[in-house]
Design a protein that fits this description.
about 30% strand, 3-stranded antiparallel sheet, about 30% helix, alpha+beta, Aminopeptidase, 4-stranded antiparallel sheet, single chain, globular
């Protein structure tokens, strides 16, 4: 998939160095959690688990101008949610530049062109993600406890 400024590709094993950097970035560690991915080998194992999970899809977002990976968009079907949930994470140096909005919008428009329901979850403290979800048209639906963590569930009806 492409936009004017971004290339959005399926995650692959060759993305291991980027994934290692992303999952160890400050925002990921604070708002998503430590995945203990401390080497390229562990990053490759992490990607393998993602690729082999039937209800999980990850896309790597790259700048079209130089093909540099800057973030990911995810689509997951979680046991505790009725519908798929979209997520995003970007390296800190590419935050607040509209890339997460642009990539999320492209995924949503291409994969959900007709009427459907989509969820997004975040911890209540992740104000930046909540702001982006609202900009994308999501509305707060409820607060839940999942895996001993309080989460805000946002819903988008397209």
């Amino acid at each position: 998939m492409k936009t004017e400024t971004l290339i959005i590709d399926q995650l692959s094993l060759t993305d291991h160095s980027f994934i290692r950097a992303l999952v160890n970035s400050s925002g990921w560690l604070e708002f998503i959690g430590d995945r203990n991915v401390t080497s390229d080998e562990l990053a490759t194992d992490y990607i393998h688990r993602i690729l082999n999970h039937p209800t999980t899809r990850y896309w790597v977002v790259k700048l079209a101008s130089n093909n540099v990976p800057i973030g990911i968009i995810t689509l997951l079907k979680r046991d505790y949610l009725e519908f798929h949930d979209i997520g995003f994470a970007f390296l800190p140096e590419y935050a607040k530049q509209g890339f997460a909005y642009e990539a999320s919008k492209k995924i949503m428009n291409d994969l959900f062109p007709e009427s459907s329901i989509l969820y997004a979850i975040t911890i209540p403290e992740n104000i930046k993600s909540i702001g982006l979800l609202k900009k994308l048209g999501f509305e707060f639906e409820k607060e839940i406890i999942a895996n001993k963590e309080t989460l805000n569930v946002f819903k988008l009806t397209t």
